[in-house]
């Protein structure tokens, strides 16, 4: 789609500099809707308005009424500024990442008597951080294991006496003595080795201690050590070792199709795939530019710990990314890391294909289903269906309700309720024709007066009486030619068929078709909406009728009571002093209390 631009924008485009920098696109409300960066601002910004676009980019350009630019000294500086501006303004069309991952990490604090704990906040405090872990449970289990096998400090310290954890062998004794720094260093060294995947030594050590405890007939201690060995076997050793080194590594790859990008990030920790993250977003810029921005944003988050190595596909500029992030970035051609990179791409493709299938299934149930209804009625496809139903009890308290469906989905913002005047024939209960005439007249007279768009199809929950009444008002009173069909139910009061045409004829939908299922949903929804409205009205009228008979309780007083108590039941339970608190004088409160008591009996 080629966009026609204003003279104002055309003049601004002519003044753009041939320099690197960032550009900020704005809509008619002067809100920043997109932030981008460019090696050459003049060429990049002009390309939005001088080229053809599809999808998200076309929608973006259609919303732009102004822009501004910020010149930078280099392309690298432009990337860094872009991320800062995106985080600040959160533009609608940019990739959005939540600030902070919320992932759990294990932290060994940097203090005289260090402790080990779980945190989701990473600070530049010279502590040791390990993770991210897939969830808090996994991090918690690992931490508890370390506290038992390689204890540091568990208590607050300086208690002047041994704490419970010291007696349990889970504290080095900072509670009552000065623990040498060398002891802490040795423990931390062992913890780091374990968390980096080297579990052979600790397993060997625990097995030896278990045997010694059993030989000394200390079976309780031997059982505890056995459980710790089983923990290693169940949670660490059973995980497949996927690399031979101990490098903390993130694998990032992506797959592009139909204007969408699917990203997979594998977190390799302790020589194992510890966690995976996936992201989906639509393309607005060149894919390599978008991915560079995404990766930079990802590692600029507050609580994102940089790994020792980041593995990315060869399409991205490795050196440029490394300079931007401040970490080693590689793109392997073969070997285990290349296999992991390919696996990340395969997962990216599967996630995106799943999304497209879900969209397709959703469209079959919504747009496709609505199309079936229009086709069976031999009508051109229309986006809006409005459906009406009436509710009453033997003609009393008549109401009508309207629901609207847009492209097969409920559009609850445009639901409407109508209190009807209540014309009825004494022999047959409610006058359905009169009720239909009234609600159709009120609904579409208003739309005409307000010059609002009309529906493409009206569905009446009923038979020929309602359909003919609606058609008569539309054609002969309002001069409208909106198609009207009736939703007929079977003897079990379930959706059966449509009636439509001139004269009215039964139109059948296949019982297993998406169109029939949508018709059921519409009929059930409008019936539910009408019934609920009628119950509300009836409940209110019941309350009003009981209070209206009481001397001295007028409309304003009834409103006071309802606002204060909320229901008749609570009013009946209220004491005289409670009634006075609601704004009644003493005489009114006494009269109301006595009258309601008499009604109970």
Automatic annotation (TrEMBL):
Q: What is this protein called?
A: UvrABC system protein C
Q: Where in the cell is it found?
A: Cytoplasm
What is the superkingdom listed in this entry's lineage?
Bacteria
Is Methyltransferase a UniProt keyword of this protein? no
Give start-end of the signal peptide.
none
Q: By its UniProt entry, which SUPFAM superfamilies does this protein fall under?
A: C-terminal UvrC-binding domain of UvrB, GIY-YIG endonuclease, RuvA domain 2-like
The family database entries (PROSITE patterns) matched by this protein are listed as: GIY_YIG, UVR, UVRC
> In this protein, which residues make up the domain named UVR?
200-235
Q: Which UniProt keywords apply?
A: Cytoplasm, DNA damage, DNA excision, DNA repair, Excision nuclease, SOS response
Alphabetized Pfam families for the sequence: GIY-YIG, HHH_5, UVR, UvrC_RNaseH, UvrC_RNaseH_dom
Q: Which organism is it from?
A: Holzapfeliella floricola DSM 23037 = JCM 16512
Domain UvrC family homology region profile as annotated: residue spans: 251-474
Record's subunit section: Interacts with UvrB in an incision complex.
Provide GO CC annotations from the record.
cytoplasm; excinuclease repair complex
| Chief place where the protein resides | cytoplasm
Free-text function comment from the UniProt entry? The UvrABC repair system catalyzes the recognition and processing of DNA lesions. UvrC both incises the 5' and 3' sides of the lesion. The N-terminal half is responsible for the 3' incision and the C-terminal half is responsible for the 5' incision.
**Entry GO MF terms:** DNA binding; excinuclease ABC activity
User: Would you identify the family this protein belongs to, as annotated?
Assistant: Belongs to the UvrC family.
Query: Which segments constitute the GIY-YIG domain?
Result: 18-95
> What GO terms describe the biological role, i.e. biological process, of this protein?
nucleotide-excision repair; SOS response
């Amino acid at each position: 789609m080629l966009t026609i631009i204003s003279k104002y924008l055309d003049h601004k485009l002519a003044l753009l500099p041939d320099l690197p920098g960032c550009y900020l696109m704005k809509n008619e409300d002067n809100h920043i809707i997109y932030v981008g960066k460019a090696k050459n601002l003049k060429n990049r910004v002009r390309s939005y308005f001088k080229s053809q676009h599809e999808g998200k980019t076309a929608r973006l350009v259609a919303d732009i009424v102004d822009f501004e630019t910020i010149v930078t000294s280099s392309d690298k500086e432009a990337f860094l500024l872009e991320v800062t501006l995106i985080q600040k303004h959160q533009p609608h069309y940019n990739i959005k990442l939540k600030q902070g991952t919320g992932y759990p990490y294990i932290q060994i604090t940097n203090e005289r008597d260090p402790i080990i704990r779980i945190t989701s906040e990473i600070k530049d405090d010279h502590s040791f951080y390990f993770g991210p872990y897939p969830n808090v449970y996994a991090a918690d289990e690992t931490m508890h294991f370390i506290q038992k096998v390689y204890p540091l400090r568990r208590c607050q310290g300086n208690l002047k006496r041994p704490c419970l954890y010291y007696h349990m062998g889970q504290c080095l004794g900072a509670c009552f003595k000065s623990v040498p720094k060398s002891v802490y260093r040795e423990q931390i060294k062992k913890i780091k080795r374990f968390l980096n995947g080297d579990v052979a030594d600790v397993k060997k050590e625990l097995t030896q201690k278990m045997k010694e405890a059993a030989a000394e007939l200390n079976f309780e201690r031997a059982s505890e050590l056995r459980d710790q060995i089983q923990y290693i076997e169940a949670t660490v050793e059973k995980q497949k070792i996927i690399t031979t080194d101990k490098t903390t590594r993130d694998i990032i790859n992506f797959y592009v199709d139909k204007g969408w990008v699917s990203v997979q990030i594998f977190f390799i920790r302790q020589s194992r795939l510890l966690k995976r993250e996936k992201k989906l977003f639509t393309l607005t810029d060149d894919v390599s530019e978008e991915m560079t921005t995404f990766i930079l944003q990802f590692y600029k988050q507050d609580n994102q710990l940089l790994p020792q190595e980041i593995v990315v596909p060869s399409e991205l500029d490795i050196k440029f990314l490394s300079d931007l992030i401040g970490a080693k970035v590689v793109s392997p051609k073969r070997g285990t890391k290349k296999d992991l990179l390919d696996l990340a791409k395969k997962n990216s493709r599967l996630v995106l294909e799943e999304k497209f299938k879900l969209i397709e299934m959703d469209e079959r149930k919504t747009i496709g289903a609505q199309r079936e209804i229009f086709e069976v009625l031999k009508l051109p496809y229309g986006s809006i269906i409005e459906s009406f139903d009436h509710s009453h009890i033997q003609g009393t308290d008549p109401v009508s309700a309207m629901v609207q469906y847009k492209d097969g989905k409920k559009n609850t913002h445009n639901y409407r309720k109508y209190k009807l005047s209540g014309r009825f024939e004494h022999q047959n209960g409610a006058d359905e024709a009169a009720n239909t005439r009234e609600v159709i007249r009120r609904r579409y007279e208003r739309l005409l007066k307000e010059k609002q768009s009309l529906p493409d199809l009206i569905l009446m929950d009923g038979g020929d009486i309602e359909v003919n009444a609606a058609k008569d008002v539309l054609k002969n009173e309002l001069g409208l030619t909106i198609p009207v069909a009736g939703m007929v139910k079977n003897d079990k009061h379930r959706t059966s068929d449509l009636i439509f045409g001139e004269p009215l004829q039964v139109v059948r939908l296949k019982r297993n078709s998406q169109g029939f299922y949508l018709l059921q949903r519409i009929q059930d929804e409008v019936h539910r909406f009408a019934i609920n409205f009628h119950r509300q009205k009836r409940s209110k009228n019941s309350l009003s009728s009981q209070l209206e008979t009481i001397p001295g309780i007028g409309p304003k007083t009834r409103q006071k009571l309802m606002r204060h108590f909320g229901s008749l039941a609570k009013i009946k339970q209220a004491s005289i002093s409670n009634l006075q608190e609601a704004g009644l004088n003493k005489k009114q409160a006494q009269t109301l209390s006595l009258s309601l008591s008499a009604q109970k009996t």
